[in-house]
Write a structure and sequence with these properties.
alpha/beta, 9-stranded mixed beta sheet, 13 helices, 22% strand, binds S-adenosylmethionine, binds iron/sulfur cluster
């Protein structure tokens, strides 16, 4: 875990940790931001999966009704901070299981459209159990253009190890395909104990042959607060499987669009995280602006209470230094395997070569990235190291933040070193 501290000190040129304060600004300044995305969190599930770290509770009709009202109020509160309608790149619904509020999604989208003009598409995460023609019809008529299906695996043993009930979901995928969304992502998990590279390749093949335009393969992570019966495979096995996935996807003509995603050529991406800036609504939703990163409370009751009093439900805020903001930007661009120096300079206000000339030189020297055309591209070797470091950061930063936020609605301070 020392590696995260060393990298932080080198890349931010400072010993200052990332410090989240239990305070917030009541005005969010997003009027002039380019490439702004929207995210809405729906924290309800039919049942709770032992491996899942996200903020969610079992579905309760009365609570969901109150939550919807609070969500609409938060959208209005934040929407009114800007005069006129603000253009945004996209709108994503994640969870939890957004379809548990199916009848409310159209209303939520309509309220969002009173304040924002959605230029790109609208995406929704789907649990495979919820897929049928009627549900997809409602999503389509609400304007949804992208879906992400949490299949995790088509394999009986893998799902059992994850603690999920097995069903052959290829039929559900065919229903999704028939609905003709612009983007169909399938989430898979790899490095599930006893998973073989053959069954993983089968999963990828199944996803694409049943209509996926993109497959996301996430390494199984054992969060400290999860309830996993079986632990993920070793990092050595993860390394081997990631190489197998990459080779298999490439051989079958797919494009690697990020460290953990592969796409049908010529299709758009499903990606709720790789935005330059975003506004998040709902419990646990994060907001990234030019100078701050903020996270909403994880407590549904506290969220409703704050919003009812016209107060932002922010629990923690990090005010970025220029280098911290640059690091955040680079982290997610490395995930997309591409850094554009011109965009970097526009966003951060300083040339990339001036801020990180040495790191770029080292990266090229060790074969982690190449300068191609006008951009730096991560090599497969670079992608592997990113995959490794992303998991270490997840355990050291996200696990810590979420673990505290699950227990305390408004923590005083969280320091990430
Ligand atoms: C918000 S979740 C799931 C959405 C949807 N409710 C479902 O279950 O299908 C998004 C994705 O994160 C991935 N994920 C969740 N927990 C994980 C873990 N412990 N390790 C790796 N990936 C995980 C899964 O692939 C999941 O589909
Ligand atoms: S994986 Fe999906 S269904 Fe399972 S608990 Fe997480 S959000 Fe809910």
């Amino acid at each position: 875990m020392l590696i995260t501290s060393i990298l932080r000190v080198i890349l931010t040129r400072s010993f200052k940790p990332f410090s989240f304060e239990g305070a917030f600004e009541s005005h969010l300044d997003y009027a002039d931001l380019k490439n702004l995305g929207l995210y809405v969190h729906i924290p309800f599930c039919h049942s709770i999966c032992s491996f899942c770290p996200y903020c969610k509770v079992l579905y309760d009709r009365d609570l969901a009704a109150k939550y919807k009202e609070a969500l609409l109020s938060e959208i209005k509160l934040v929407g009114n901070m800007n005069d006129g309608k603000k253009c945004v790149t996209s709108l994503y619904f994640g969870g939890g299981t957004p379809v548990l509020m199916l009848d409310d999604l159209k209303e939520i989208i309509d309220v969002i459209k009173e304040y924002f003009i959605i230029k790109g598409g609208i995406g929704v995460e789907l649990h495979p159990d919820d897929i049928n023609e009627a549900v997809l019809d409602v999503l389509k008529s609400a304007g949804v253009t992208m879906v992400s299906v949490g299949i995790q695996s088509f394999n009986y043993n893998c799902l059992s190890v994850l603690g999920r009930k097995y069903r052959d979901f290829t039929g559900e995928m065919d229903i999704v395909r028939a609905a003709e969304f612009d983007v169909v992502d399938v989430d898979l998990i790899f490095a599930i104990p006893w998973q073989t590279s053959e069954s993983l390749k089968n999963d990828i093949e199944n996803a694409f042959s049943h209509g996926a335009t993109q497959v996301s393969t996430y390494p199984f992570i054992d969060f400290t607060f999860a309830d996993n019966k079986y632990k993920p495979m070793s990092e050595k096995s993860k390394k081997y499987l990631l190489a197998q996935i990459t080779e298999f996807a490439r051989e079958s003509g797919k494009q690697r669009t990020s460290v953990w995603t592969y796409s049908q050529k010529g299709t758009s991406k499903y990606s709720s995280v790789t935005r330059d800036n975003f506004l998040g609504f709902g419990v646990s939703a994060t907001t990234l602006l030019q100078d701050q990163f903020k996270i909403n409370t994880f407590s549904i009751d506290a969220y409703i209470d704050r919003i009812t009093n016209d107060i932002l439900p922010t629990s923690l805020t990090l005010h970025f230094s220029q280098r911290q903001r640059a690091c955040y930007y680079l982290f997610w661009n490395c995930y997309s395997m591409q850094i554009d120096p011109k965009v970097f300079e526009k966003m951060i206000g300083k040339p990339l070569a001036k801020m990180y000339g040495f790191e770029l030189w080292v990266g090229e020297l060790f074969g982690l990235l190449n300068f191609e055309g006008d951009v730096y591209k991560l090599t497969d070797k670079g992608a592997y190291y990113y995959h490794y470091i992303e998991q270490v950061y997840t355990m050291k930063y996200i696990d810590k933040m979420w673990n505290i936020s699950r227990k305390q609605a408004f923590p005083k301070k969280i320091t990430l070193k």
